[in-house]
Amino acid sequence: MKIATRDIPTRIDSPNAVARHQPDFGDATGYGDIAAEHFAMEKGTDLAGLLEGLEDDLCQSPHWGYVVSGELTVTYADGSEETDEGGDMFYWPPGHTVRADENVDFVLFSPQHEHGQVLDHVEQKMAESP
């Protein structure tokens, strides 16, 4: 699920501030502590190989985030794809992988425990590669 910033409904619109609000943007029930993460990926980077060995060879942590600049494609377990680009806010449910279509800069908010396990796995895969 993604939404361009300009498409988020305006709740407050005053001369000094505009607040946009999108309710029901992913469920965080039962996830505990959230980590904030910043990623920069070069065009062509594909995380699929680094996720091999995880359940369904996919990231099993949900993420909420914002693409600062660039473009990436998220592929879900059912094979569907979503392209997120600069200015998009997104929610990625568990069961996905990501590739950079352009140099991309994005921010994630993720359950600390679940995504920590994924990052540990990715670091291990990177250490094993030549």
TrEMBL record:
Superkingdom, taxonomy of origin: Archaea
InterPro entries noted in UniProt: RmlC-like_jellyroll, RmlC_Cupin_sf
Name under which the protein is recorded: Cupin domain-containing protein
